[in-house]
Amino acid sequence: xxxxxxxxxxxxxxxxxxxxxxxxxxxxxxxxxxxxxxxxxxxxxxxxxxxxxxxxxxxxxxxxxxxxxxxxxxxxxxxxxxxxxxxxxxxxxxxxxxxxxxxxxxxxxxxxxxxxxxxxxxxxxxxxxxxxxxxxxxxxxxxxxxxxxxxxxxxxxxxxxxxxxxxxxxxxxxxxxxxxxxxxxxxxxxxxxxxxxxxxxxxxxxxxxxxxxxxxxxxxxxxxxxxxxxxxxxxxxxxxxxxxxxxxxxxxxxxxxxxxxxxxxxxxxxxxxxxxxxxxxxxxxxxxxxxxxxxxxxxx
Length: 300
Hints:
The protein is α/β, with parallel strands linked by helices. It contains twelve helices and ten strands.
């Protein structure tokens, strides 16, 4: 069983931001028999928040809204959503005061179910089961949560939109399919996070006919930290770099001889794109598709 994504020798706060975000795999869920008040559900991790919104249920509260807006970006939160603190250590007293009808968590991340059950019923979802298909797992979690909430038709409606988006992107990507695509985000001025096999992005790229330019090592979470110098080996690829408040880092890297020597920089094949949550679900996948449409295909 794997642990959190690990980056040897990197201790900067940005790693804690980027990679402590990845949930762990743990125990099976326990369900309440009653249907909760949909207006009073709290999501203590970002994956369940995305799943709820996909079902048309805006959470009453979620954990860590500032970082959600930085790292996830879409789906957007309503202005009324309340912040209940960090995802690893939410404000339990405040959560209790909010009197939630349901707490939705990611298995193995944040407080244990036993710590939460005295406040409200708890439903947990998985972020990774080791299958290297996190998006398919997220779809199963969407159905499970929909069934629990009595909203199976909303799951079907959302998935219809998801499949329509995939089909549109697949068509738009046909002219771009011959050129591999590399997906990265900056960690610091010397390291990037690269996405490969086992990532949500890999699943989407396979669905729409694109080839991942990264053929190096991977991880349980589908992402790996590498030194920027490793990117020099990537030839003839489009590079999409997710922006998570990393403008200062990119400004520092851009004038360096190493960066200027990169084939994708010399060939003007590097594009900074909006944030997409690496460990998300179908909303994140759709957001990624729209980014592919606007960068590699025709704007839609």
